[in-house]
């Protein structure tokens, strides 16, 4: 199914859909088709890291994947849809309280997913209490906080301070991301790392769990 | 207008318009001293922009939205609902912080008008946002993929009859209005007018008129404060604002997610749409600049930054239409002042294509040493100071970093000291330290 892998990786959306339908009609096992998509996504992820692919490719890849799974999912046998590839770590993600921006956060979600993390995404405008509650329940290796606005500094600091008070701060890595994040903000928040672009964040997180 | 305008080049027109603005013509100054101060401050900016003369010192122009409001202990909601609070804060901030050009108070906007319109393109304090915080954009797919042809054929009609109803709930009935063109002759005018008489459409127009009425009252209340800012010797940092066509399409119409996929799904339509927006964005910038007798046209750049797209995509989809808007503004004597959000380290060579001394680039996260190297002597640059230091740092750190930035970026002119973003919040001691350090170390 190299043709399907190539079509997805090269952003040939129509071609990818035609091939997917063709393979389904030919009776190709659903898992095998999904495997082809996963291979394509890993190529896309790599190109994203190499800075040959950017936001348009990442979003389109996500759409292609979504469209394909709508066709494939009904064909999966019971239990098959739960077959997950082994995960390299757990990642709790959200845009912090007061901030409703989601584009950067959504890209991180997708890239972390492609890179083998189990991601729990809390959405936008997430209060500190929710981060703490979900932390206890989900037990992530890493907490990723997103924010575009400068008010995010305070919201992020509140989450990190709370983890300290809970005596949990040294058990989890904290990374912050957004347009106005830098060394200064990172120190203020008490995070382990800051990033202004998604790829850098993925690499840092992968380093932490390896 | 200005004598000899018709025969002037873009650059000459800009010089003439800048000189007219910097002279303070039409402003009733409170004193001769205020006039001299105004001319000095505006002169610093004029010299920095045109690159012909080293200014006396670097102009210090921190961009701000709600920061002054917060600094004086008011909430964003108070500023958006009481023009006297907004006006007084802007006046006090400008005088106390002694900036070289100050914020444009109407940028804060009037909450009651938004309420009447049922505006949902933004959330604002008290409407989906805490009362203390500034407004935030709500990005959605307000324009569907199948709407491209309508938008391209007739943006104004599309704007009025499709986009308005989708972004302002009180204007939803305008979707039922027939196009304007029936008015061209008597026999066709009747049906058009009859449709206007339908009760829901009447209600929509009433809402629009009401929003206009209260906005007019608002600007009349705000006007005397703006007058006092000018008359006490402080220029405004912009005469008007416009946008890069790609950002217009991506921010307010298609949304980032959809537009980015359009680059693959319907690239030709994207190109036609951004091209269609070029003259609209030029006239928007020029109109406001003329009305306010201020040639500086603010252009916030959003979706062309590093990381958003490849250089090839930037070169094809983002840059050509923006460049046309900038050149069009310059041809009309205006100075395009791009506020370059995010990082532009991969794009500096494109920006260097602009004619010498005709525009300004205020940077956010771009490497300022690189910006100086590539754009120095070509265009005025500015910004590059991190807002994080203003909010979380101390005065001494701010002074040290300001000095460093000036050493790196100020050159022998052509630099405006600014912060990398329009501040929603700030701290008094650090912001004052920034401004004072700018004046101290920015002396040429």
Structure description:
In chain A, strands 2-1-3-4-5 form a five-stranded parallel beta sheet, sandwiched between helices. The radius of gyration of chain A is 19 Å and the shape is elongated. Chain A folds into two domains: about 1-80, Methyltransferase, Methionine Synthase (B12-binding Domains), Chain A, domain 1 (Orthogonal Bundle); about 90-210, Rossmann fold, CATH 3.40.50.280. Chain A has nine helices and five strands, in the order ααααβαβαβαβαβα. In chain A, α7 (about 150-165) links the parallel β3 (about 140-145) and β4. Helices cover about 55% and strands about 10% of the residues of chain A. Chain A is α/β, with parallel strands linked by helices and about 210 residues long. Chain A has helices at about 1-10, 15-25, 30-50, 55-70, 105-115, 130-140, 150-165, 185-190, 200-210, and strands at about 90-95, 115-120, 140-145, 175, 195. Chain B has about 450 residues and is α/β, with parallel strands linked by helices. Chain B has a domain at about 5-65 and about 235-440: TIM Barrel, CATH 3.20.20. Chain B is about 55% helix and about 5% strand. Chain B contains 19 helices and nine strands. In chain B, the strands form two sheets. A six-stranded parallel beta sheet of chain B has the order 4-5-6-7-8-9. Chain B has a three-stranded mixed beta sheet with strand order 2-1-3. In chain B, α15 (about 350) links the parallel β6 (about 335-340) and β7 (about 360-365). The relative contact order of chain B is 0.13. The interface between A and B is medium-sized, with 31 and 38 residues.
């Amino acid at each position: 199914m190299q043709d399907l892998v190539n079509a997805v990786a090269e952003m040939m959306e129509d071609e990818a859909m035609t091939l997917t339908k063709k393979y389904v009609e030919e009776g190709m096992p659903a898992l095998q088709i999904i495997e082809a998509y996963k291979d394509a996504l890993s190529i896309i992820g790599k190109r994203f890291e190499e800075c040959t692919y950017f936001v348009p490719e990442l979003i389109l890849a996500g759409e292609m994947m979504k469209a394909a799974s709508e066709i494939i999912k009904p064909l999966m046998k019971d239990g098959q849809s739960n077959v997950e590839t082994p995960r390299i770590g757990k990642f709790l993600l959200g845009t912090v309280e007061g901030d409703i921006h989601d584009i950067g956060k959504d890209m991180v979600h997708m890239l972390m997913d492609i890179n083998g993390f189990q991601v729990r995404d809390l959405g936008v405008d997430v209060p500190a209490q929710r981060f703490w509650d979900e932390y206890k329940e989900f037990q992530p290796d890493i907490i990723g906080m997103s924010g575009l606005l400068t008010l995010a500094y305070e919201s992020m600091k509140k989450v990190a301070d709370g983890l300290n008070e809970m005596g949990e701060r040294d058990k989890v890595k904290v990374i912050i991301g957004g347009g106005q994040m830098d060394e200064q903000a990172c120190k203020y928040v008490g995070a382990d790392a800051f990033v202004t672009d998604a790829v850098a964040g993925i690499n840092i997180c992968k380093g932490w769990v390896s | 207008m200005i004598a000899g305008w018709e025969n002037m080049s873009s650059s000459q027109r800009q010089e003439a318009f800048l000189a007219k603005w910097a002279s303070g013509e039409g402003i009733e100054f409170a004193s001769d001293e205020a006039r001299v101060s105004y001319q000095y401050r505006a002169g610093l900016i004029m010299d920095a922009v045109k690159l012909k003369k080293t200014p006396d010192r670097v102009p210090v122009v921190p961009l701000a939205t709600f920061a002054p409001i917060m600094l004086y202990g008011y909430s964003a909601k108070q500023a958006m609902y009481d023009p006297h609070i907004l006006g007084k804060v802007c006046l006090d901030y400008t005088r106390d912080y002694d900036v070289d050009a100050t914020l444009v108070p109407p940028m804060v906007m009037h909450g009651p008008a938004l309420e009447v319109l049922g505006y949902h393109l933004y959330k604002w304090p008290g409407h989906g946002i805490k009362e203390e915080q500034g407004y935030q954009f709500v990005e959605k797919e307000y324009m569907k993929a199948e709407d491209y042809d309508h938008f391209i054929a007739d943006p104004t009609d599309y704007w009025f009859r499709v986009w308005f109803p989708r972004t302002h709930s009180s204007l939803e009935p305008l979707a039922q209005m027939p196009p304007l063109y029936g008015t061209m002759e008597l026999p066709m005018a009747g049906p058009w007018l009859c449709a206007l008489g339908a009760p829901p459409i009447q209600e929509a127009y009433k809402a629009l008129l009401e929003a206009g009425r209260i906005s007019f009252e608002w600007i009349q209340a705000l006007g005397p404060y703006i007058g006092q800012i000018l008359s006490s010797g402080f220029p405004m940092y912009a005469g008007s604002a416009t946008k890069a066509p790609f950002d217009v399409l991506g921010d307010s119409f298609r949304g980032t997610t959809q537009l980015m996929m359009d680059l693959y799904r319907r690239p030709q339509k994207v190109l036609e749409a951004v091209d269609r927006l070029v003259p609209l964005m030029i006239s928007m910038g020029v109109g406001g600049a003329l009305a306010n007798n201020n040639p500086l046209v603010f252009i916030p750049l959003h979706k062309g930054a590093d990381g958003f797209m490849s250089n090839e995509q930037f070169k094809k989809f983002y840059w050509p239409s923006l460049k046309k808007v900038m050149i069009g503004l310059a041809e009309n004597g205006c100075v395009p002042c791009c506020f370059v959000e995010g990082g532009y380290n991969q794009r500096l060579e494109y920006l260097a294509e602009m004619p010498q001394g005709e525009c300004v680039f205020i940077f956010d996260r771009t490497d300022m040493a690189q910006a100086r190297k590539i754009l120095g002597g070509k265009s005025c640059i500015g910004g590059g100071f991190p807002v994080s230091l203003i909010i979380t740092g101390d005065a001494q750190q701010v002074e040290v970093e300001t000095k460093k930035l000036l050493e790196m970026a100020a050159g022998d002119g052509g630099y405006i000291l600014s912060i990398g973003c329009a501040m929603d919040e700030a701290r008094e001691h650090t912001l004052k330290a920034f401004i004072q350090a700018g004046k101290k170390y920015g002396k040429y």
